[in-house]
Amino acid sequence: MTDLIIANILFNLPITLRKQLFVGEHAFCPICHSHLSGFLTALSSPMSWCPVCRSLQRHRLIWLFLERFHLITPEQPQTMLHFAPEPGLARRFAQMHHLRYVTADLFDPSVMMRFDITTIPFNDHTFDLILCSHVLEHVPNDHQAMRELYRVLKPGGIALILVPIQGEHTFEDATITDPLLRERYFGRFDHVRTYGIDVIQRLQQAGFSVKAVDVKDIAADQAEIERMGLPPREKIFVCCNEPG
User: Cα–Cα distance between 48 and 230 in angstroms, integer?
Assistant: First the structure.
């Protein structure tokens, strides 16, 4: 176990040095291809970081899915929109020189474009691939956000959408605005709902064809899940804009 403060100090070290410090055979990060003695964890948190690229469990799951289902290659996709970009994933996407890669967020000053996900400033059918991981639970009007994601996705394109899932039914209450109450009811002070698996219906209402994929659909076996530090309960909602 390592404290968050220690982790922050470690992440300020050069990547090459971190790779040497944590070299081993107990763990493997599929994003940066580092063989590691283990992942970094925090005493009060279920998060598990790669000490080299800073990826979390769900980030590694996303990359593994893209690789194993051949959705990310030196030739494809041609255009990609990435909301709230995770550093390890963004670094890999940025290395794909053929890719028109756009990062976006409402608040983060380091992204290429800052805008509200409910009003995406691109024409219809602009992107082949959209990645939106753990964003929609922060958005009051998620129905409009989903419609916008569908609008800017090309026919035949894919949006990978991840949200934290708790149970069967989505719970939201717009009158709950106090950060402490939001943390109690929604799990985080900056969340505005908890999603159930019925998020699939919301995505379908926006126009998407949806398939839920979990770790057992991606990893070879339990040993690989543990070695790569993958999340056992995370789902990737593969949302397609089916050509008419």
Answer: 9
